[in-house]
Amino acid sequence: LLHALCLMTTFVFLSTGPTVSGSLVKGEVGQNITVPCFYSVDMKHGVTSMCWGRNTCPASKCSQPIIWTDGWKVTDQYYSRYMLKGDLLKGDVSLTIVNAEEADSGTYCCRVEIPGWFNDETTNLQVVIEKARISTASPHTYTSPQTSAPGSASEASFTVKTWPSVSASEAPQTASGPCLNTSDYSEVASSLQNVSISVHRQQYSEKEVYIRTGLCVVFLVILVLGLFL
């Protein structure tokens, strides 16, 4: 019975410690995020040591510590992007995350060490760092050219039209009008060939006439020379 009474007394004593309920802190990538934490500085206790750590607050100290202070100044700083910018002498021990990243999301523990057994003030805060939202600009709308009224500044704007593309399968295969089809091309080619043959024959006949004329002239010259001899 005495043992059970001691356990119950210990449990009640542990549960009466001043623990501040957790809260949610949200921010965007690239911003400086401030995770708030304060404690009261009075004549009885004054400034005191404290620490920041990742994950929920353990029974004592801070797991995965980030920063330690002795109440007046920072004594240990494990990461350069985590710092205390508040007035430590007034109990402002808020954590500032410089140039926040998505990896900074998670649970943070702020432990203020108050002298005495189980008097530490602990705060568990959930930090969520999201990617910055990129706004998409709406497309510009153009109107047809307009003429402003006399005496006012005139502005000209234009309508941009996009014609639907035509695929190769949808393109017209034949065209009407002066264009020739396949049979017309064949007839033209045949006519050109016949003209070429006739011209060649005409040139050949002209050469034959020249040769015969030349032979006759040579024969006459020989005959005249024979008569004189």
TrEMBL record:
GO terms for biological process: apoptotic cell clearance; cytoskeletal rearrangement involved in phagocytosis, engulfment. One of its GO terms (molecular function) is phosphatidylserine binding. It is found in: Membrane. One of its GO terms (cellular component) is membrane. The keyword RNA-binding does not apply. It is a single-pass type I membrane protein. Pfam families: V-set. The chain crosses the membrane at residues 209-228. Belongs to the immunoglobulin superfamily. TIM family. Residues 1-22 form the signal peptide. Gene3D superfamilies: Immunoglobulins. Keywords: Disulfide bond, Glycoprotein, Immunoglobulin domain, Membrane, Signal, Transmembrane, Transmembrane helix. This is HAVR1 protein. Residues 18-130 form the Ig-like domain. It comes from the Eukaryota. InterPro entries: Ig-like_dom (IPR007110), Ig-like_dom_sf (IPR036179), Ig-like_fold (IPR013783), Ig_sub (IPR003599), Ig_V-set (IPR013106). The keyword Disulfide bond applies.
